Amino acid sequence: MQTNWDDLRIFLAVARDNSLSGAGKRLRLDPATVGRRIQKLEAALQTVLFTKSPQGYALSETGQALLVRAEQAETAMRAAVAVLQEQSDRLSGQIRIGAPDGAANYLLPQVCAAILKENPDLEIQIVALPRVFNLSRREADMAIAVSAPTAGRLIVQKITDYKLHLAVSRDYIRDNGAIRSVADLARHNVVGYIADMIFDRELDYLEEIGLTKVPLASNSVSVQLNLIRQGGGVGVVHDFALSAAPEVARILTDEVSLTRVFYLIRHEDDRRNARLRRFADRLCNGLRAEVARLEALT
Protein backbone atom coordinates (compact mmCIF):
# COMPACT_ATOMS: atom_id res chain seq x y z
CA MET A 1 0.00 0.00 0.00
CA GLN A 2 1.33 3.43 -0.87
CA THR A 3 1.01 6.29 1.59
CA ASN A 4 0.71 9.90 0.51
CA TRP A 5 2.38 12.95 1.98
CA ASP A 6 -0.73 13.95 3.90
CA ASP A 7 -0.68 10.59 5.72
CA LEU A 8 2.96 11.09 6.66
CA ARG A 9 2.34 14.69 7.73
CA ILE A 10 -0.27 13.53 10.26
CA PHE A 11 1.91 10.65 11.40
CA LEU A 12 4.84 13.02 12.03
CA ALA A 13 2.67 15.43 14.02
CA VAL A 14 1.47 12.69 16.38
CA ALA A 15 5.00 11.28 16.71
CA ARG A 16 6.39 14.69 17.65
CA ASP A 17 3.61 15.73 20.04
CA ASN A 18 2.93 12.28 21.52
CA SER A 19 -0.77 13.10 21.54
CA LEU A 20 -3.74 13.49 19.24
CA SER A 21 -4.65 16.85 20.75
CA GLY A 22 -1.16 18.26 20.30
CA ALA A 23 -1.02 17.02 16.73
CA GLY A 24 -4.47 18.46 16.12
CA LYS A 25 -3.33 21.89 17.24
CA ARG A 26 -0.24 21.67 15.03
CA LEU A 27 -2.32 20.57 12.03
CA ARG A 28 -5.42 22.63 12.87
CA LEU A 29 -7.51 19.46 12.87
CA ASP A 30 -9.92 18.00 15.38
CA PRO A 31 -8.15 15.38 17.57
CA ALA A 32 -10.81 12.82 16.67
CA THR A 33 -10.05 13.35 12.99
CA VAL A 34 -6.35 12.88 13.68
CA GLY A 35 -7.11 9.63 15.53
CA ARG A 36 -9.23 8.32 12.65
CA ARG A 37 -6.49 9.15 10.15
CA ILE A 38 -3.88 7.27 12.21
CA GLN A 39 -6.19 4.26 12.51
CA LYS A 40 -6.75 4.33 8.75
CA LEU A 41 -3.01 4.53 8.12
CA GLU A 42 -2.32 1.61 10.48
CA ALA A 43 -5.02 -0.45 8.79
CA ALA A 44 -3.63 0.32 5.37
CA LEU A 45 -0.10 -0.63 6.47
CA GLN A 46 -1.41 -3.58 8.49
CA THR A 47 0.75 -2.64 11.46
CA VAL A 48 0.62 -0.76 14.75
CA LEU A 49 2.44 2.56 14.65
CA PHE A 50 1.65 3.85 18.16
CA THR A 51 0.99 2.37 21.57
CA LYS A 52 -1.14 4.34 23.97
CA SER A 53 0.29 4.93 27.44
CA PRO A 54 -0.24 7.37 30.35
CA GLN A 55 2.40 9.57 28.73
CA GLY A 56 0.47 9.67 25.45
CA TYR A 57 1.08 8.06 22.09
CA ALA A 58 4.44 6.30 21.89
CA LEU A 59 5.93 4.97 18.69
CA SER A 60 6.06 1.24 18.21
CA GLU A 61 9.10 -0.44 16.71
CA THR A 62 7.45 -0.22 13.29
CA GLY A 63 6.53 3.38 13.98
CA GLN A 64 10.17 4.20 14.79
CA ALA A 65 11.21 2.72 11.44
CA LEU A 66 8.53 4.73 9.62
CA LEU A 67 9.59 7.91 11.47
CA VAL A 68 13.03 7.79 9.84
CA ARG A 69 11.52 7.44 6.37
CA ALA A 70 8.86 10.06 7.04
CA GLU A 71 11.43 12.62 8.14
CA GLN A 72 13.47 11.94 5.02
CA ALA A 73 10.34 12.48 2.93
CA GLU A 74 9.62 15.69 4.83
CA THR A 75 13.12 17.02 4.12
CA ALA A 76 12.76 16.21 0.43
CA MET A 77 9.33 17.81 0.28
CA ARG A 78 10.55 21.03 1.89
CA ALA A 79 13.49 21.19 -0.50
CA ALA A 80 11.19 20.70 -3.47
CA VAL A 81 8.80 23.39 -2.25
CA ALA A 82 11.70 25.80 -1.72
CA VAL A 83 12.92 25.22 -5.28
CA LEU A 84 9.45 25.72 -6.72
CA GLN A 85 8.95 28.89 -4.72
CA GLU A 86 12.31 30.22 -5.86
CA GLN A 87 11.55 29.41 -9.49
CA SER A 88 8.07 30.90 -9.34
CA ASP A 89 9.49 34.07 -7.81
CA ARG A 90 12.07 34.50 -10.55
CA LEU A 91 11.46 37.03 -13.28
CA SER A 92 11.96 36.35 -16.96
CA GLY A 93 11.51 38.06 -20.30
CA GLN A 94 12.54 41.51 -21.45
CA ILE A 95 12.04 44.70 -19.42
CA ARG A 96 13.12 48.09 -20.75
CA ILE A 97 13.81 50.99 -18.40
CA GLY A 98 14.06 54.58 -19.56
CA ALA A 99 16.16 56.80 -17.34
CA PRO A 100 17.98 60.14 -17.23
CA ASP A 101 21.66 59.52 -17.72
CA GLY A 102 22.62 60.32 -14.12
CA ALA A 103 20.59 57.39 -12.82
CA ALA A 104 21.47 55.29 -15.87
CA ASN A 105 25.23 55.75 -15.45
CA TYR A 106 25.74 55.74 -11.70
CA LEU A 107 22.87 53.74 -10.19
CA LEU A 108 21.13 51.40 -12.60
CA PRO A 109 24.16 49.31 -13.65
CA GLN A 110 24.84 47.91 -10.19
CA VAL A 111 21.14 47.65 -9.23
CA CYS A 112 20.15 45.88 -12.46
CA ALA A 113 23.17 43.59 -12.32
CA ALA A 114 22.08 42.45 -8.86
CA ILE A 115 18.50 41.84 -10.05
CA LEU A 116 19.77 39.86 -13.05
CA LYS A 117 21.95 37.72 -10.79
CA GLU A 118 18.81 36.67 -8.91
CA ASN A 119 16.79 36.29 -12.12
CA PRO A 120 19.05 34.83 -14.82
CA ASP A 121 16.18 34.44 -17.30
CA LEU A 122 15.51 38.17 -17.26
CA GLU A 123 16.66 40.57 -19.99
CA ILE A 124 17.04 44.15 -18.76
CA GLN A 125 17.50 47.03 -21.20
CA ILE A 126 18.54 50.47 -19.93
CA VAL A 127 17.77 53.33 -22.28
CA ALA A 128 19.75 56.36 -21.11
CA LEU A 129 18.35 59.51 -22.64
CA PRO A 130 18.13 63.02 -21.15
CA ARG A 131 14.45 63.45 -21.90
CA VAL A 132 10.95 62.38 -20.82
CA PHE A 133 9.88 58.94 -22.04
CA ASN A 134 6.50 58.33 -23.64
CA LEU A 135 5.14 55.18 -22.02
CA SER A 136 1.90 55.37 -24.01
CA ARG A 137 3.97 54.72 -27.12
CA ARG A 138 5.71 51.91 -25.25
CA GLU A 139 9.15 53.47 -25.59
CA ALA A 140 9.88 51.66 -22.34
CA ASP A 141 8.10 49.41 -19.85
CA MET A 142 8.85 51.89 -17.09
CA ALA A 143 10.80 55.08 -16.67
CA ILE A 144 12.67 56.95 -13.97
CA ALA A 145 11.87 60.65 -13.80
CA VAL A 146 12.92 63.62 -11.67
CA SER A 147 9.43 65.07 -11.42
CA ALA A 148 6.04 63.43 -11.05
CA PRO A 149 3.84 63.72 -14.16
CA THR A 150 0.41 65.21 -13.60
CA ALA A 151 -1.27 64.03 -16.80
CA GLY A 152 -1.76 60.73 -18.53
CA ARG A 153 -2.82 57.26 -17.40
CA LEU A 154 0.25 56.57 -15.33
CA ILE A 155 1.29 54.89 -12.10
CA VAL A 156 3.66 57.21 -10.23
CA GLN A 157 5.79 55.83 -7.41
CA LYS A 158 8.34 57.81 -5.44
CA ILE A 159 11.66 55.99 -5.33
CA THR A 160 13.89 58.17 -3.16
CA ASP A 161 15.29 61.63 -2.48
CA TYR A 162 18.84 62.34 -3.59
CA LYS A 163 21.33 65.12 -2.92
CA LEU A 164 23.39 67.37 -5.18
CA HIS A 165 26.20 69.80 -4.35
CA LEU A 166 28.67 72.02 -6.09
CA ALA A 167 31.86 70.16 -6.89
CA VAL A 168 35.21 70.87 -8.49
CA SER A 169 38.43 69.00 -9.21
CA ARG A 170 41.42 69.47 -6.95
CA ASP A 171 43.51 70.39 -10.01
CA TYR A 172 41.13 73.22 -10.84
CA ILE A 173 41.38 74.61 -7.29
CA ARG A 174 45.17 74.34 -7.45
CA ASP A 175 45.29 76.27 -10.72
CA ASN A 176 42.53 78.80 -10.05
CA GLY A 177 42.40 79.31 -6.31
CA ALA A 178 39.94 78.36 -3.58
CA ILE A 179 36.21 79.02 -3.88
CA ARG A 180 35.07 80.30 -0.49
CA SER A 181 31.59 81.65 -1.26
CA VAL A 182 28.84 81.59 -3.87
CA ALA A 183 29.91 85.10 -4.84
CA ASP A 184 33.32 83.72 -5.83
CA LEU A 185 31.67 81.60 -8.53
CA ALA A 186 31.29 84.67 -10.73
CA ARG A 187 35.00 84.56 -11.55
CA HIS A 188 35.16 80.82 -12.23
CA ASN A 189 34.20 78.61 -15.13
CA VAL A 190 30.83 76.95 -14.60
CA VAL A 191 29.83 73.56 -16.00
CA GLY A 192 26.14 72.81 -16.49
CA TYR A 193 23.26 71.99 -18.80
CA ILE A 194 22.65 73.51 -22.22
CA ALA A 195 19.87 75.92 -21.32
CA ASP A 196 17.49 75.15 -24.19
CA MET A 197 17.94 71.39 -23.73
CA ILE A 198 16.88 71.20 -20.09
CA PHE A 199 13.95 68.78 -20.39
CA ASP A 200 12.71 69.18 -16.80
CA ARG A 201 12.74 72.33 -14.68
CA GLU A 202 13.94 70.26 -11.71
CA LEU A 203 17.28 70.08 -13.53
CA ASP A 204 17.77 73.83 -13.78
CA TYR A 205 20.15 73.86 -10.82
CA LEU A 206 22.28 76.81 -11.87
CA GLU A 207 19.35 79.20 -12.14
CA GLU A 208 18.42 78.23 -8.59
CA ILE A 209 21.92 79.18 -7.48
CA GLY A 210 21.85 82.38 -9.53
CA LEU A 211 24.35 81.39 -12.23
CA THR A 212 23.47 82.13 -15.83
CA LYS A 213 26.77 82.05 -17.72
CA VAL A 214 27.85 78.49 -18.52
CA PRO A 215 31.07 78.33 -20.56
CA LEU A 216 31.07 74.51 -20.58
CA ALA A 217 27.71 72.86 -21.12
CA SER A 218 26.24 69.47 -22.03
CA ASN A 219 22.85 67.84 -21.99
CA SER A 220 24.50 64.82 -20.31
CA VAL A 221 25.20 64.56 -16.59
CA SER A 222 28.09 62.15 -17.18
CA VAL A 223 29.68 64.54 -19.68
CA GLN A 224 29.33 67.38 -17.19
CA LEU A 225 31.06 65.32 -14.52
CA ASN A 226 33.88 64.47 -16.91
CA LEU A 227 34.28 68.15 -17.76
CA ILE A 228 34.62 68.87 -14.04
CA ARG A 229 37.07 65.99 -13.61
CA GLN A 230 39.25 67.41 -16.37
CA GLY A 231 39.50 70.74 -14.56
CA GLY A 232 37.00 72.52 -16.79
CA GLY A 233 35.26 74.30 -13.95
CA VAL A 234 32.81 73.99 -11.09
CA GLY A 235 29.35 72.44 -11.42
CA VAL A 236 26.47 70.75 -9.65
CA VAL A 237 27.07 67.03 -9.16
CA HIS A 238 24.95 64.20 -7.78
CA ASP A 239 26.38 63.02 -4.49
CA PHE A 240 25.85 59.43 -5.63
CA ALA A 241 28.14 60.03 -8.63
CA LEU A 242 31.12 61.34 -6.66
CA SER A 243 32.56 57.93 -5.89
CA ALA A 244 33.12 57.54 -9.64
CA ALA A 245 35.25 60.70 -9.66
CA PRO A 246 37.71 60.57 -6.75
CA GLU A 247 39.56 63.65 -8.04
CA VAL A 248 36.41 65.75 -7.56
CA ALA A 249 35.31 67.15 -4.20
CA ARG A 250 32.23 68.96 -2.95
CA ILE A 251 32.50 72.63 -2.05
CA LEU A 252 30.29 75.20 -0.29
CA THR A 253 28.14 72.43 1.16
CA ASP A 254 26.62 74.74 3.77
CA GLU A 255 25.66 77.39 1.20
CA VAL A 256 24.46 75.14 -1.64
CA SER A 257 22.68 71.85 -1.01
CA LEU A 258 19.99 70.65 -3.39
CA THR A 259 17.50 67.82 -2.92
CA ARG A 260 15.64 66.18 -5.77
CA VAL A 261 13.44 63.10 -6.14
CA PHE A 262 13.49 60.07 -8.40
CA TYR A 263 10.08 58.70 -9.40
CA LEU A 264 9.25 55.43 -11.13
CA ILE A 265 6.60 55.84 -13.81
CA ARG A 266 4.59 52.99 -15.31
CA HIS A 267 1.59 52.84 -17.59
CA GLU A 268 -1.78 52.41 -15.91
CA ASP A 269 -2.52 49.36 -18.07
CA ASP A 270 0.33 47.57 -16.30
CA ARG A 271 -1.18 47.89 -12.83
CA ARG A 272 -2.29 44.25 -12.85
CA ASN A 273 0.90 42.98 -14.43
CA ALA A 274 2.42 41.01 -11.53
CA ARG A 275 5.72 40.55 -13.37
CA LEU A 276 6.31 44.27 -13.87
CA ARG A 277 5.07 45.06 -10.39
CA ARG A 278 7.54 42.63 -8.82
CA PHE A 279 10.36 44.01 -10.94
CA ALA A 280 9.39 47.58 -10.01
CA ASP A 281 9.50 46.71 -6.31
CA ARG A 282 12.96 45.17 -6.65
CA LEU A 283 14.17 48.12 -8.70
CA CYS A 284 12.91 50.74 -6.24
CA ASN A 285 14.33 48.91 -3.23
CA GLY A 286 17.65 48.52 -4.99
CA LEU A 287 17.83 52.17 -6.00
CA ARG A 288 16.98 53.39 -2.49
CA ALA A 289 19.70 51.23 -1.00
CA GLU A 290 22.26 52.23 -3.61
CA VAL A 291 21.61 55.97 -3.27
CA ALA A 292 21.93 55.66 0.51
CA ARG A 293 25.15 53.66 0.21
CA LEU A 294 26.82 56.02 -2.26
CA GLU A 295 25.75 59.21 -0.49
CA ALA A 296 27.18 57.84 2.75
CA LEU A 297 30.58 57.72 1.04
CA THR A 298 30.72 61.47 0.42
Topology:
Blueprint: H1 5-17, H2 20-27, H3 31-45, E1 50-53, E2 56-59, H4 61-89, E3 93-99, H5 101-106, H6 108-118, E4 122-128, E5 142-145, E6 154-169, H7 170-176, E7 190-192, H8 205-209, E8 216-217, H9 221-229, E9 234-238, E10 248-250, E11 258-267, H10 274-296
Parallel strand pairs: 3-4, 3-5, 7-8, 7-9
Antiparallel strand pairs: 1-2, 5-11, 6-9, 6-10, 6-11
Helix pairs in contact: 1-2, 1-3, 1-4, 2-3, 6-10
Task: Describe the model.
- This protein is α/β, with parallel strands linked by helices and 298 residues long.
- It has helices at residues 5-17, 20-27, 31-45, 61-89, 101-106, 108-118, 170-176, 205-209, 221-229, 274-296; strands spanning 50-53, 56-59, 93-99, 122-128, 142-145, 154-169, 190-192, 216-217, 234-238, 248-250, 258-267.
- It is 42% helix and 22% strand.
- β1 (50-53) and β2 form a beta hairpin.
- α6 crosses α10 (274-296).
- It is elongated, with a radius of gyration of 31 Å.
- The chain starts with a helix and ends with a helix.
Structural class: alpha/beta
Distance between the termini: 69 Å
Query: Can you count the beta strands?
Result: 11
Radius of gyration: 31 Å
Per DSSP, what share of the residues sits in E-state strands of 2 or more residues?
A: 15-25%
- What is the CATH superfamily label of the largest domain? Periplasmic binding protein-like II
Shape: elongated
What's the CATH class label of the largest domain?
A: Alpha Beta
Biggest sheet character: 9 strands, mixed
